[in-house]
Design brief:
By secondary structure, the chain is an alpha+beta fold. The protein has 4 helices and 14 strands. The strands form 3 sheets. It has a 7-stranded antiparallel β-sheet with strand order 1-10-7-12-5-2-4. A hairpin with a 2-residue loop joins strand 8 and strand 9. The radius of gyration is 16 Å and the shape is globular.
């Protein structure tokens, strides 16, 4: 979502339960779902555990499916999502995506903007689970050092990138929250994005 600014620090969150579960995942779990790596060139140097993902082909119907990562991390992740939403956003919205993303030592995500229409109407939240001072998150050319255990809303309509200059992996929990004013309930029980807030 575009907003006035590049990044909002939403403050410290209770992240340790999710962090501990993520650190127990084996290498196979990190490769169960390659949708981000196969769909987006900028994510080829990353690994992910996908919990929830919007069905792009259904847009503007908002259809969200549980993915392989849900069984490992769903409960702990949604507790954290609920805490952030309750504190900062209007209730009653839709979590369109929930992903654990790892950028390995020396890896990078090249500058890009998130272009699908769903990215225009959802709050993109990053929660660093594992990071260090040698990881740089850059938005519109400005570098940020994101603190572990804080939630941040990212302006994903500005060019952003990641460079991990350390010898350790960087792991973020990322989710997209579409607030209730950005969609309407359809007669068949589905939610449909409003064209004014979520361009088709």
């Amino acid at each position: 979502m575009n907003f006035d600014g590049l990044l909002r620090d939403l403050g410290a969150v209770r992240y340790s339960a999710l962090r501990e579960k993520v650190l127990t995942l084996d290498s196979g779990t990190w490769r169960e779902n390659l949708v981000r790596q196969e769909s987006f060139d900028v994510h080829k140097q990353t690994e992910s555990v996908v919990l929830l993902f919007i069905e792009i082909d259904e847009w503007p119907r908002i259809v969200v499916k549980r993915k392989a990562g849900w069984k490992h991390l769903g409960a702990a992740a949604m507790t954290l999502v609920d805490d952030v939403v309750d504190a900062h956003f209007a209730p009653g919205g839709v979590v369109a995506r929930a992903v654990i993303a790892r950028v390995g030592p020396g890896a990078r995500i090249m500058p890009h903007t998130d272009t699908h229409s769903s990215f225009h109407c959802g709050h993109r939240v990053h929660i660093p689970l594992v990071t260090n001072a040698r990881v740089r998150f850059t938005i519109a050319g400005k570098p940020f050092s994101l603190e572990e255990g804080h939630a941040y809303e990212i302006n994903n309509q500005k060019p952003h990138s990641v460079m991990n200059n350390s010898r350790a992996g960087r792991i973020h929990f990322i989710f997209d929250y579409v607030p209730p004013g950005r969609f309407r309930e359809s007669g068949d029980g589905h939610r449909v994005a409003e064209s004014e807030g979520c361009p088709a």
